[in-house]
Amino acid sequence: MGTRALQKKMDQILYREQHGLLKSSNKSRALRKILANKLAIIGLVLFVAITILCVFAPLFTPYQPNSIDLRNRLAPPTFGHLLGTDQIGRDIWTRILFGGRISIFVGLGSALGAALIGVSLGTYAGYRGGLLDATVMKISEIMMSFPQIILVSILVTIVGQNLWNLMYIFILTGWSSMYRMARSQMLSIREQEYIQALRAFGISKAIIAFKHMLPNAIGPIFVNITLSTAMFILQEAALSFLGLGVPLDQPTWGNILNVAQDLTILRESWWVWLPVGVAITVFVLAINFIGDGLRDAADPTLIG
Amino acid sequence: MEKNKDILVRISNLRTYFPVKKGVFRRTVGQVKAVDGVDLEIIRGETLGVVGESGCGKTTLGKSIIQLCKPTSGKVLYAFPDGEKDLAAMNDKALDVARKRLQIVFQDPYSSLNPAFTIFGSFSDPLKKFGIKSRTDREAAVGRLLEAVNLPKDYMTRYPNEFSGGQRQRIGIARALSVDPELIVCDEAVSALDVSIRAQVLKLFKELQAERGLTYLFITHDLSVVEYISDRIAVMYLGKVVELAETQELFRNTVHPYTKALLSAIPIADLAQKKKRIPLQGDVPSPVNPPAGCPFHPRCTYCQPICRTEVPKLTAYPTGGTAEHHVACHFALDFLGGTR
C-alpha cells in the first residue's frame, strides 16, 4: 500500500473525528488507524492463523509429533502425509504445528519478558537520570559485551538444557538493548516542555515517566518487541541447530531445520526443510508488518 | 513604590549554577553562573517584566523561582497566608502546597502539550492531584478553563496536533490556570507566536490578570512586548539584575548603559523620528567565567577603573514620583543627573 493512499485514509479518519462523526474518539483512534493499514492487517491475519494452527495443533493433524514410522522414512508429500515425513518417519506437517507452539512461545515470551524488564528500567532510569541510570547503564553494557553463546553454554552446563533456561537467557541478554532504546527515547522526551509543566504541578516521577512519557516512546518499543520476537525465533533455531537450544526430543522450528545439516536431505528432500523455513519466514514477516502498523498507529503526529 | 506594598515573592541573593563536567570521570571543571546573586521583589498583582539577551539567565531565574531548577543558594521567600516561607529550602512534599500557587507558561507551544494525550488527558492528572477526583467534575473544570481562554470547551477531546500555535499557547495558559495559581511565570510565552496572534494572547494575559488578580513574572527578550504588559521591568545581564524600575520610568529615564543600548535597538515605525542607536561591541562574556567587577564593563563605553574591580550593587535611587529606580552601576547618579 502506497504511503499516499495511507495518508489519504488517515486524513479521512481525521475529518470524521473533527466533525464528530465518530464516538469516543480518544479510545479507538489507534485501533482505527491500524485497521486502515492493509499490510498490518495481512500481518495480523497471518499471525493469528499460524498461532491458531499451532495452539490447536491436535485438531489439524491425526499424528503425534514424535510418533516414529520407520516404514515411511523421508516420504515425499502425499495425502496421508501432507508435507511428507522426515528421516525417521515423523509427519513434518504435525511437527511444524507442534514446533510452532514452542518456537512462538519462546520468541514472544522472551521478547515480552525482555521488554518488560528493559522498558520499565529504561523508562524510569531514563527519566530520573543520575546514579540509578548510570548503574543500570553499566550493567547493561556488561550484559551486551558478554557473548550470548557462552552464557548459553554455561547455563546449559550448570542447569541443564531446557526450554525455560533458554528463555531466561534470552531475557537476560535481550533486556539491555530494550533498556537502551527506552532510555534514549526518555532522554529526548524528558526535555519537552510538557514534562516540565507536569513537574511544575508536582506530579510524581513514576506517573510522569510511565503514563505521560512512555506513550510517546511506545512506537519504537513495539517495533523493537516485534523485531526481537523474530530475532529470538531465529536464535532459538540457531541454538537448536547447534544442539544448545531446546532439547531435540521436543519439536521446534529450529529442531526441525536441524536435519538440514545433512547434505543429502538438503539436496533431495526439500519437504523436510523448505516448509518449516517458509513458516519461520512468513511468521517473522507477519510480526514485522504488525510492528510497523503499531508504530504508525502509536505515532500521534502521523495523522493530520 | 508605595510604602505598604504587598510583596508576594521576595528573592534574596539567588544563585543557580550548573556544573560543567569534563573528561572520563565527569569531573566538575567549572560552573555556569546562570543566575548570579539576584535580589528581586515581586509585588502581588503586578506584572514584572524580565528582559535581557539570550543566555542572560532570565529563564533560569523563572525556573528557579518555581523550583523547576534547584537554586544553588539564596532564598525565594513566598508569602503564604500563614507567613513567608522559603521555597528553595522546601523538599518535594512541602513544595506541593506551593505548586498550587505557582505555575509556568512555556515558550514553545509545540512542545508544551503532550502529543499522545487529548487536551483533557493533559489536564487530567494535575486536576486529580489538586483534589478533583471524579471524571465528570474534571471534564467540567477543563471546559471552564478552555472557555476562560476563549476556546470552545469541546476542544478537550482533541489532540494537540489539531491546533494552531496561538490555540496551543492558550491551552498552555489554561493548563497553568487549572490550579488557580497566584503567580504565573511566563517564559517567553509569546515569543514563538506571530505578531497578530501575539497581540491576542497578550490581551488575554491582561484580561486574566484583571479577572483573577494574577501576578506575572513575564520573561521576554522582546522590549515592545514587555513595555506593553509590564508594570515594572527588571533588566538582566549575565545572571544579574542591572536595572529595575517602573515601565514608564525605565523607558523615559534610562540609567544603565546596557539598558540604554537595549532600548536604542527598538525599531520605531516613524521615519521622521531619528534615533541614535548605541551599538554594543563584542559578545556577552561566558557565564562560566564572568568578568571581574561590573559584568558589563568589557562592553561599556563609559568604563572606568573602578568598574573593572568592584561589582556595583543594585541600589535604589529616588525618582520624582513615588517609585524608586534601582540601578547597579557605579555612575548611576551621574547618569540620573544627566552629567553624562
Write the layout of secondary structure elements.
The complex is a heterodimer of chains A (304) and B (340).
Chain A: H1 3-18, H2 25-35, H3 38-55, H4 57-60, H5 92-128, H6 130-145, H7 148-159, H8 163-190, H9 193-200, H10 205-242, H11 253-257, H12 263-268, H13 270-298
Chain B: E1 7-22, E2 27-43, E3 47-51, H1 58-65, E4 73-80, E5 83-86, H2 92-99, E6 102-105, H3 119-129, H4 135-148, H5 165-177, E7 183-187, H6 195-212, E8 215-220, H7 223-229, E9 232-237, E10 240-246, H8 247-252, H9 257-264, H10 305-309, E11 315-318, E12 324-327, H11 332-337
Parallel strand pairs in B: 3-8, 3-9, 6-7, 7-8
Antiparallel strand pairs in B: 1-2, 1-4, 4-5, 9-10, 10-12, 11-12
| Category by helix and strand content of chain B | alpha/beta
Strand order of the largest sheet of chain B: 6-7-8-3-9-10-12-11
The tally of structural domains of chain B comes to: 2
Number of E-state strands of chain A: 0
- What is the average per-residue confidence, as pLDDT of chain A, rounded to a whole number? 83
Proportion of helical residues of chain A: over 70%
Largest sheet of chain A, described in full? none
Indicate the CATH class of the largest domain in chain B.
Alpha Beta
